[in-house]
């Protein structure tokens, strides 16, 4: 096999096995699109509902949580527009869980491709992330419609909060996903731990309850600060600011219940969440880059 000359490399030729590292998803956009299409086709092969599953799962989650917590535990009485509050958090943890889980299994799940032909390994977790975003869009549309029914109107504050939340969530989760994808190629137990993390994250973020309830219970302790610095807590609160906090029912209830005002609002500790997300992404990318040459042997 001949090695490309310097002239050929200058014209865009690269030796086999060489790639652009973390820039692969940008440079290999065509391959990335092919992998996204492949994942979508495989996922819904033989399915009668297809993309409708993007609505079914969050709808069932919402109904179960709303009845159990909103009706039985009467959280809906203490929280104005509780349906919007609840669904704002559900869409966050669903997107977190799907990106995290899919990215973790992206290398082991594509073992035949990884072991037999050369493809930039970064494309697999990134394609999983894009598929998760495709499934997130229908849930977001339902959230927007629901918020509008409660009198919510788009505003610059809502758009900034949503953009910050999405940025932190995607960067943070992709960092975790790249890290666990590399580990899962060698140790299959990792994907089971990821499922546990997603389950715990649902309850350790203010999805089902108000953050003021946590503050009342552990304020003044280190646990309160750690809870606030949880990137998922920050993202869920940003989504609440975007879709719930400034709805008419909530604004009207604030004089009677000041606890509806979120800590550090409107955007809270977004800067801390972004810093943690970027640090996690860098660590995950470095570990992935150092591990990717062993994937074929480990699979």
Compact description:
By secondary structure, the chain is an all-alpha fold.
What does this structure look like?
With 299 residues, the protein is mainly α. The protein has one domain (63-298). 72% of the residues lie in helices and 0% in strands. Helix 6 runs parallel beside helix 9 and helix 9 (156-186) runs antiparallel to helix 10. The two termini are 26 Å apart. The model has no long low-confidence stretch (mean pLDDT 85). InterPro entries: ABC2_TM (IPR013525), ABC2_TM_bact-type (IPR047817). GO terms for molecular function: ABC-type transporter activity. One of its GO terms (biological process) is lipopolysaccharide transport. It is found in: Cell inner membrane; Cell membrane. The chain crosses the membrane at residues 55-75, 82-103, 123-152, 159-187, 193-211, 223-247, 267-288.
Question: Beta-strand level of the residues, as a percent range?
Answer: under 5%
The percent of residues in helical segments reads: over 70%
Structural class comes to: mainly alpha
* Poorly predicted ranges: none
Domain ABC transmembrane type-2: 49-291
Transmembrane segments: 55-75, 82-103, 123-152, 159-187, 193-211, 223-247, 267-288
Organism: Brachybacterium alimentarium
GO molecular function: ABC-type transporter activity
């Amino acid at each position: 096999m001949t090695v490309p000359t310097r002239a050929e490399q200058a014209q865009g030729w690269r030796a086999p096995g060489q790639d652009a590292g973390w820039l692969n998803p940008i440079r290999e956009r065509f391959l990335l699109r092919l992998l996204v299409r492949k994942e979508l086709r495989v996922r819904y092969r033989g399915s009668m509902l297809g993309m409708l599953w993007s609505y079914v799962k969050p709808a069932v989650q919402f109904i179960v949580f709303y009845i159990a917590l909103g009706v039985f535990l009467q959280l809906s009485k203490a929280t104005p527009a509780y349906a919007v509050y609840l669904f704002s958090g559900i869409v966050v943890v669903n997107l977190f869980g799907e990106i995290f889980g899919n990215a973790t299994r992206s290398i082991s799940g594509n073992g035949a491709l990884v072991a037999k032909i050369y493809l930039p390994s970064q494309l697999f977790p990134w394609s999983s992330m894009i598929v998760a975003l495709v499934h997130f869009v229908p849930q977001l549309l339902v959230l927007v419609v629901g918020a509008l029914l409660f009198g919510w109107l788009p505003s610059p504050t809502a758009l900034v909060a949503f953009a910050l939340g999405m940025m932190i969530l995607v960067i943070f989760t992709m960092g975790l996903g790249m890290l666990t994808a590399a580990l899962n190629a060698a140790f299959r137990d990792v994907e089971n731990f990821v499922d546990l993390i997603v389950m715990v994250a649902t309850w350790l973020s203010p999805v089902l309850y108000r953050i003021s309830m946590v503050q009342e219970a552990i304020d003044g302790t280190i646990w309160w600060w750690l809870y606030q610095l949880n990137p998922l807590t920050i993202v869920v609160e940003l989504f609440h600011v975007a879709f719930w906090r400034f709805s008419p029912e909530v604004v009207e209830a604030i004089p009677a219940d000041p606890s509806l005002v979120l800590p550090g609002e409107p955007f809270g500790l977004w800067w801390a969440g972004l810093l943690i997300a970027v640090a996690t992404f860098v660590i995950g990318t470095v570990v992935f880059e150092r591990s990717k040459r062993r994937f074929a042997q480990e699979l």
